[in-house]
Write a structure and sequence with these properties.
The chain is α/β, with parallel strands linked by helices. It folds into 2 domains: 3-128, 2-enoyl-CoA Hydratase, Chain A, domain 1, CATH 3.90.226.10; 132-179, no CATH class. The protein is built from 10 helices and 8 strands. β1 and β2 (13-17) form a beta hairpin. 18% of the residues are buried.
């Protein structure tokens, strides 16, 4: 049986959904997904809008329905597959027409990491301690960086650091440290 957990940032809180339709219905930022079970190519292509994808060691990724999927029409998210794992890996995966284990797709770069469900929940908890703006900025930077020259990337990194450094929670943390008291962080982004 397939088990899917999609984590969405909803008004500054991380909310878990168990179906893609529910997660996509919200106007909020998709952050991460956890896959446990067997997933078809069409399901995988739908998931590629999620930046961080984790899977259990038992997960299987079915690329055997490639012909049927492409006979209908070119899938919309095919470009996301190419962007995520590259042209050569995409072509190889589609032509092999195989079932892939989690470790195989991890090597390809289709998923970020192989986790147990407990490790995934710990990762969600770590992410939930970050502010929404930090998460969205990190996702935006990761998306832009491969397309920038080194000088442009350094300027963008300095800008991102300056933005994070001016956040009121950062100032409160520094002030609390200097005054040797517990910080009083705000919950806004």
């Amino acid at each position: 049986m397939n088990k899917l957990t999609v984590v969405v940032n909803e008004n500054g809180q991380l909310i878990c959904y168990t179906s893609l339709k529910e997660a996509f219905c919200t106007e909020n930022t998709l952050l991460m997904a956890y896959l446990d079970g067997e997933f078809s190519l069409s399901e995988i292509l739908d998931l590629l809008a999620v930046p961080l994808i984790y899977a259990s060691v038992n997960s299987v990724f079915d690329f055997t329905d490639v012909k049927a999927l492409f006979e209908k029409e070119m899938p919309n998210n095919f470009a996301l597959l190419v962007k995520r794992i590259g042209y050569a890996n995409s072509l190889e995966a589609l032509l092999d027409n195989n079932l892939y284990k989690a470790e195989d797709v991890s090597r390809l770069g289709l998923i970020n990491q192989i986790y147990t469900e407990e490790e995934f929940q710990a990762q969600v908890k770590r992410l939930s301690n970050l502010s929404l703006s930090a998460i969205e900025l990190a996702l935006s930077l990761a998306e832009r960086m491969p397309h920038l020259a080194t000088a442009q990337a350094e300027v963008l990194e300095r800008y991102a650091f300056a933005l994070r450094f001016t956040h009121p929670n950062q100032k409160e943390g520094m002030q609390a440290f200097l005054e040797k008291r517990p910080p009083k962080f705000s919950n806004f982004n």
